[in-house]
Amino acid sequence: MKTLDQIAIACQTDRATVFTRTHGKPHGYAPQYDRLFTPLRDEPIKFLEIGVGGGESIQMWLEYFPNAQIVGVDVNSKTNPWNTPVESPDPRYKFCQGDQACETFLACFLADYGKDWDIVIDDGGHFSNQVVTSFQKLWPAVRPGGFYAIEDLGVSYGAGSVFLPAGWPNHMDFIKSKLDEINCADEIEWLTFSKELAVIKKAH
Predict the structure, then answer these.
(1) What is the pTM of this model?
(2) Strands of the 142-151 sheet, one edge to the other
């Protein structure tokens, strides 16, 4: 059975440890996800990814989770088969166009696609308002024992970062505040960090 990293390399997503495209760098998230998600690999899970791009990671997840129902969200659409509504390349995959920073869109999304998500991954625009709004609206829809991942956290550093719009908390600080919730509330079981990646597990 292939590891997630082997699949990621074959699909040429930057979550792999080897990424040979001219633009971009390998983030190496795949081994971290493999370690956390292996128990769910053959389960009929419900999976949401924000940030579809060219569909490389969607193809990776479809292979890794052969029994999953996967939904992709992106602000862009109709640039490739994986972000084109209606014409899905795989019967287990659906695409929904929308802005992850828009509370109305997120409310409509949950009304259409339901709750009880096993895994939510935010690989969207990486702006603080997007990350914080998405988490606040989607975290309640994650099932007990489910996971919420936020990628590419390196953009949250530097006072001049364009990813830190005025009036919004730095999303890395927002995630760090969840550490206190582990001790002061009962909703988070654990939070793990690796380079530019945070994964939060919901308590049962």
Answers:
(1) 0.96
(2) 93-97, 69-74, 46-50, 117-122, 142-151, 197-202, 188-194
pLDDT, tens only, 4-21: 999 999 999 999 999 887
87-142: per-residue pLDDT in tens?
A: 789 999 999 999 999 999 999 999 999 999 999 999 999 999 999 999 999 999 99
Catalytic residue from among 23, 126, 171, 204? 126
Strands 188-194 and 142-151, bridge-based pairing: unpaired
Q: What span, in angstroms and rounded, lies between the C-alpha atoms of 125 and 115?
A: 23
Distance CA 176, CA 188 (A): 13
Mode of pairing for the β-strands spanning 197-202 and 188-194: antiparallel
**CATH 3.40.50.150 corresponds to the domain 42-202:** yes
CA distance 181 to 178: 5
Angle at 149 between CA 194 and CA 183, to 5 degrees: 80
Question: How distant, in Å, are the alpha carbons of 22, 68, 74, 184 from that of 122?
Answer: 24, 18, 10, 25
Contact 50, 124 (CB under 8 A): yes
204 classed as catalytic: no
Backbone angles phi, psi at 156, to 5 degrees: -85, 0
- Return the closest-CA partner of residue 55 out of 34, 40, 33, 70: 70
